[in-house]
Specification:
- With 266 residues, this protein is mainly α.
- 40% of the residues lie in helices and 9% in strands.
- It contains seven helices and six strands; from the N terminus they run ααβααββαββαβα.
- The strands form two sheets. It has a three-stranded antiparallel β-sheet. Strands 5-4-6 form a three-stranded antiparallel β-sheet.
- Helix 1 packs across helix 5 (86-110) and helix 5 (86-110) packs antiparallel against helix 7 (148-182).
- The longest helix has 35 residues, at 148-182.
Length: 266
């Protein structure tokens, strides 16, 4: 979707300034142009030209590729023009302007305004009260002034802007939206027709394991389970120490040697 040259120049000038238009015209129909070549052909200072390129790139009017110079070691940027967002930016700017005018019209209709005979400034009723209805610049008394002509001018601007936005949508936006509905997106194949799936046989439900039936609780509540008396550990019998046996007194050993027999005297 391409907008007219007049709309393109207006949007770029509004967002980036009028000084970037020569670069836009130079890059039309070209791709990956070195910043040094742009500066040389347009006879621009390199720093000034880079500032203009960065302003365009900030609003996505340019794309770039970066390559490193093997000999010198620095990076060189190669620029390509991209004006595909111009229609959307134009519509956005105009809608924001329309919103500002509508808000101002509501404020003009809802408030009373005061000014001095010298028309130094125009203040609302609340602001005039702060200065005791005396002009803060010349000190003269401030009187209420009519704003009917301001209201009529705002209404004319709003009406003109609404027609302008409507005409732009009919010429640029609606045809593009209709094409997008008819054609599949670029790079994506057309959607295949879905074949009806065969009816799946219902799966047999797995048998649930038998669950033990719980006894119904009584009205008074669940019965308290009696606690079995814990077996008290029997006191271990103290092992009595075996008393040492009394040793019987040893009988003195007698000499068992036989006494020599006395010989008979002759």
């Amino acid at each position: 979707m391409r907008a007219g040259k007049k709309i393109q120049d207006w949007v770029i000038t509004f967002l980036c300034g009028e000084d970037v238009l020569p670069i836009v015209e130079y890059l039309k129909g070209k791709e990956n142009i070195s910043e040094f070549i742009i500066a040389e052909d347009l006879k621009l200072d390199l720093n000034v030209m880079r500032n203009q390129l960065y302003r365009l790139q900030k609003h996505n009017f340019l794309t770039f590729k970066r390559k490193k110079d093997k000999k010198k070691g620095w990076y060189i940027y190669y620029w390509t023009l991209n004006l595909s967002d111009i229609p959307f930016l134009y519509r956005k700017i105009k809608n924001e302007e329309l919103s500002r005018l509508v808000l101002r019209l509501e404020r003009e209709k809802a408030s009373n305004f005061f000014s001095c005979n010298n028309s130094c400034m125009r203040l609302s009723f609340e602001q005039s009260m702060e200065f005791n209805f005396s002009c803060p610049e010349c000190g003269s008394i401030m009187n209420q002034v009519s704003n009917d002509h301001i209201i009529s001018d705002l209404e004319e601007k709003i009406d003109k802007l609404e027609h302008e936005i409507q005409d732009f949508n009919e010429r640029y936006m609606q045809p593009q939206l209709e094409k997008q509905k008819q054609k599949p997106e670029a790079g994506k194949p057309a959607p295949k027709k879905k074949m009806p799936k065969p009816e799946a046989k219902p799966k047999a439900k797995p048998k649930k394991a038998a669950i033990a039936k719980k006894k119904p609780k009584s009205a008074l509540g669940a019965k308290k389970t009696r606690k079995k008396p814990s077996k008290q550990a029997k006191p271990k019998k103290k092992l009595e120490k075996s008393k040492p046996k009394k040793k019987s007194p040893k009988t003195p050993k007698t000499n068992t040697k036989p006494k020599p027999k006395k010989g008979k005297k002759h």
